[in-house]
Write a structure and sequence with these properties.
The chain is of the alpha+beta class and 149 residues long. The protein has 4 helices and 7 strands.
Length: 149
């Protein structure tokens, strides 16, 4: 399963990157995120339990996060449950119209025969919806006039 979601944000690239990297603020600015619990925390690498809700359905997962300031990327690897092994990459591309923020999810199902069943549920119903909402809410937060000054 390979899926991606993108949005154009009109805010400074560094502000967008830092907002995406700072998981501790996500439940404050992303209404569909219930909590973020840190198991390990450092400036470049974290182990976290993330919890969100999709249409009233609570979900959670454990991820390792890497913050790559040199490449301006935020990366995750899911460590447990159905999405174990999934790689997630956030990129931040400057364009003439703003910053194109893209989230790519790449999951190789551990049982390939189940992929045709799992892909539309995990990818379509959960990941695509949550990633799209995350980007839209982050855009709304970052484009508020008070944050532009």
């Amino acid at each position: 399963m390979l899926t991606s979601a993108s949005i154009l944000m009109r805010a400074p690239r560094q502000a967008i990157f830092e907002t995406a990297a700072d998981l501790s603020k996500w439940p404050e600015i992303l209404p569909h995120y219930r909590y973020i619990h840190y198991f390990e925390k450092s400036p470049e690498r974290n182990i976290v339990k993330m919890a969100a809700v999709r249409s009233g359905i609570p979900i959670s997962w454990v991820s390792e996060q890497w913050i790559d300031r040199e490449r301006c990327e935020v990366r995750f690897r899911h460590l447990k449950a159905f999405t174990k092994g999934m790689e997630v990459v956030w990129t931040f591309e400057e364009t003439p119209d703003g910053v194109k923020v893209t989230i790519i999810h790449d999951l190789r199902f551990r049982i390939p025969a189940l992929a045709p069943l799992a892909d539309p549920i995990i990818g379509g119903f959960f990941i695509d919806h949550i990633a799209g909402r995350t980007l839209a809410c982050m855009k709304e937060h970052l484009e508020r006039p008070a944050l532009q000054s």
